[in-house]
Amino acid sequence: MNKLSNNLSAMYTHYRKKINKRTKQSVALALSTALLITGAYIDQPTKLTVDVSPKPASTAGVFAAVSAMDLSVSSSNFDFASADVTVVAATSDQVDPDKADIYDEWADKIVADVDDFLYVRAEADIASEVVAKLRKGDMATLVDVFDGWYEIESGNAHGYVSADYCVTGIEAYELALDVCDTYATIDVNGLRVRDEASEDAKIVTAVSKGTKLEVDTEAEEVEGWVAVKYDGKKGYVKADYVQVDLATGEAITLEEEAEAIRAAEEAAAKKAAEQAAQKEAAKAAAAQTASAKQSVIASADDLTLLAAIIQIEAGSELYEGQVAVGAVVMNRVVSGSYANSIEGVIFQKGQFSTSRMSSVVANGPKASCVQAAQEAMAGVDPTGGLTHFRRAGSKSGYIIGNHVFY
Q1: Measured CA distances, 298 to 51, 264, 289, 292, 293 (Å)
Q2: In this structure, are residues 265 and 209 in contact, taking their beta carbons and an 8 Å threshold?
Q3: What is the rounded distance in angstroms from the CA atom of residue 321 to the CA atom of residue 324?
Q4: Which domains can be identified in the chain, with CATH numbers?
Q5: pTM listed for this prediction
Q6: Which letter does DSSP use for residue 165 in this model?
Q7: Residue (of 252, 259, 263) closest to 130 by Cα position
Q8: Can you tell me the distance from the alpha carbon of 400 to that of 324, in angstroms, rounded to the nearest whole number?
Q9: Please, which pLDDT band fits residue 98 given cuts at 50, 70 and 90?
Q10: What is the mean pLDDT of residues 46-51?
């Protein structure tokens, strides 16, 4: 028994020094499986072939667990030292070299395969306390494997998640590609973004070091280039000058979630208060402006008000047209169908354009409009008693300049 244990230990130590992490895990798994299958009882020297080719990343947790196991047997008849052991390693054409680094990086990684989030519990039990959430797009590190559960670490969270709702290794990487954004971080200053994957292509813009650009994962891949999105446009940057990374997240503890909710509520309340204050300030400013305008208008006499409305409605018209507009106001005053004052007629709702009235009054109407107002108030009426006018061509009537009176 001691001899077998010593031989097993020596062999494992030997291969630990010779091969990488994946291969060590595979050796441990193969040895353990062989001993378990045989019941750890072998009566004669046996040739044992151990396949140390890389295993699927989804079994990374199993490898980790097996590599930490104590190998023990119950037979004293097996002479491991005399056994013919052959280690079969993967050849270069069996392992995709482009995925070798990804395998190593993601071998102990977990992503929750959920639409929203997966609870992280304090113990490997569905009834255990919830301590965190592993959300869609969050990545965790596999610590250990239990019956239907993974022990994980992610951010400040440490606990257990149901293995039924998680993927590991390459599957986790592929899922992350689907649900997470990919960004290219610029490594140099002034990197050119071109509209096509060619150094002769048009330059869209130049970006500074540290800038993060979203990678356009749907664009056609071109060797040596990375397709990116910039300011709503698509372009390409040289792959040698960027670092491409997946924007994976981390699990959030319940305390962190509560703090995030509180901060969001405070921010929303602050924004609402600022908006309310802005509205009140705008109302106060509008009221102050309206009061100032009203004060200016209230201080004006009838002649100034009539001259001001003539300028607003017909300031660029022939002098006759200016007098005609003033006459329309005076005709309404005496008609009995409108207000019986110049101010009342001018400010009747929906009749004249009075939004500029205060500024015109404050600055003083121009001389021709003042003279036209004086004539209209004295009874001069080019319209012959008409009470309406519009832009010429919009209605039949008596035309003076660009207005038709009716």
Answers
A1: 100, 50, 14, 10, 8
A2: no
A3: 5
A4: 2-97 (no CATH), 182-246 (2.30.30.40), 302-405 (1.10.10.2520)
A5: 0.49
A6: G
A7: 252
A8: 8
A9: low
A10: 41
